[in-house]
Amino acid sequence: MANHKSSVKRIRQDKKKTIHNKYYAKTMRNAVRKLRAMTNKDEAAALYPKVQKMLDKLAKTNIIHKNKAANLKSGLMKHINGL
User: Fold this and answer.
1) Which helix (H) or strand (E) holds 51?
2) What's the rounded Cα separation, in Å, for the pair 41 and 8?
3) Structure pTM?
4) 2, 27, 65, 69 - which has most CB atoms within 10 Å?
């Protein structure tokens, strides 16, 4: 157990941030999964900007790495163009 008040507080903060980050990462994974499952090009193209915005926001706040966001966006664009 932590011996200092500041370390106890840090543990509390980390738990809260972890839950917050997991929620947004899971939401992003579900959105990417949904887009990859689409077979209609028009629907996929309409959903892509929302997913792209989500990826950019998560990369900006360091929930995911900026290169991971770029790789996901690139792969999703290839999927849409291949439809």
Assistant:
1) helix 41-60
2) 51
3) 0.83
4) 69
